[in-house]
């Protein structure tokens, strides 16, 4: 993507100063100077001939030089000829530089996780959370949900990235029966997961230690009132169902099973 075109096509709301917030939360602290947007990047579909983005489809993050982790569904779609997946790294306000996503490999067990190569050096060196993960633990994430789309004077689409910091806590661990690749253990989160947040890392609150990857918004239905008929009037009352949405994250153990050309064929666990 040409720089001049990039400035016009891929805008951004001014990113919040996340590092100052994180450093003051809890007894744990993030290493001085960490800025999530350095290594947590938006995934974009680029039309190479027109040098214009056509969609923003998720979030990915660097776990090492040239190694990107994301959710498989963010990069699994076969694109039309002349289009490709890229990540964009912030260089200045309202300016992101594009980098191609290469050598995409799905999790070996078919989970909703992918390992990719990108020509980028890691800056933040996120850690792996190695202590036991339990319900009630506070967590945070950062990604690119709810991208605002507008049109310029020529009718071309402009994508305004809105990097967001979200936090919540782990409500439970359970086997998600509808997981890609078959039933799988996941973390349920008291956190919204709007479109575009998939593939974002999940960190223990107040640290830059990753304990999972956000991948899905899970809806739970509860019946508040069952369908009924009044025996006197014959009036029919409909069933009332309340829908509650939780986020889901793959545990870090699954992430560490990833391998592909991006990792030189080695399991990611061996490189972390």
TrEMBL record:
<dbReference type="InterPro" id="IPR043504">
    <property type="entry name" value="Peptidase_S1_PA_chymotrypsin"/>
</dbReference>
<keyword id="KW-0378">Hydrolase</keyword>
<dbReference type="Pfam" id="PF13365">
    <property type="entry name" value="Trypsin_2"/>
</dbReference>
<dbReference type="GO" id="GO:0008233">
    <property type="term" value="F:peptidase activity"/>
</dbReference>
<protein>
    <submittedName>
        <fullName>Serine protease</fullName>
    </submittedName>
</protein>
<dbReference type="GO" id="GO:0006508">
    <property type="term" value="P:proteolysis"/>
</dbReference>
<keyword id="KW-0645">Protease</keyword>
<dbReference type="InterPro" id="IPR009003">
    <property type="entry name" value="Peptidase_S1_PA"/>
</dbReference>
């Amino acid at each position: 993507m040409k720089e001049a075109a990039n400035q016009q096509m891929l805008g951004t709301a001014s990113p919040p100063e996340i590092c100052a917030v994180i450093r003051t939360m809890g007894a744990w602290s993030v290493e001085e100077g960490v800025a999530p947007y350095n290594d947590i990047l938006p995934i974009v579909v680029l039309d190479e001939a027109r040098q214009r983005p056509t969609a923003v489809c998720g979030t990915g993050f660097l776990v090492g030089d040239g190694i990107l982790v994301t959710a498989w569904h963010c990069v699994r779609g076969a694109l039309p000829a002349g289009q490709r997946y890229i990540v964009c790294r912030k260089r200045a306000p309202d300016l992101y530089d594009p980098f191609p996503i290469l050598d995409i490999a799905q999790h070996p067990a078919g989970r909703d996780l992918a390992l990719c190569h990108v020509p980028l050096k890691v800056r933040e060196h996120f850690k792996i959370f190695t202590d036991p993960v339990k319900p009630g633990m506070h967590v945070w994430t950062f990604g690119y949900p709810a991208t605002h789309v507008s049109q310029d004077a020529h009718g071309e689409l402009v994508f305004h990235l809105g990097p967001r910091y979200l936090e919540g806590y782990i409500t439970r661990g359970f086997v998600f029966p509808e997981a890609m690749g078959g039933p799988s253990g996941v973390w349920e989160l008291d956190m919204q997961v709007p479109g575009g947040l998939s593939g974002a890392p999940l960190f223990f609150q107040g640290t830059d230690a990753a304990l999972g990857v956000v991948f899905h918004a899970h809806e739970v239905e509860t019946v508040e009132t069952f369908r009924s008929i009044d025996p006197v009037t014959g009036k029919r009352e409909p069933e009332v169902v309340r829908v509650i949405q939780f986020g889901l994250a793959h545990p870090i153990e699954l992430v560490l099973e990833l391998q592909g050309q991006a990792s030189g064929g080695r399991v990611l666990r061996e490189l972390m």
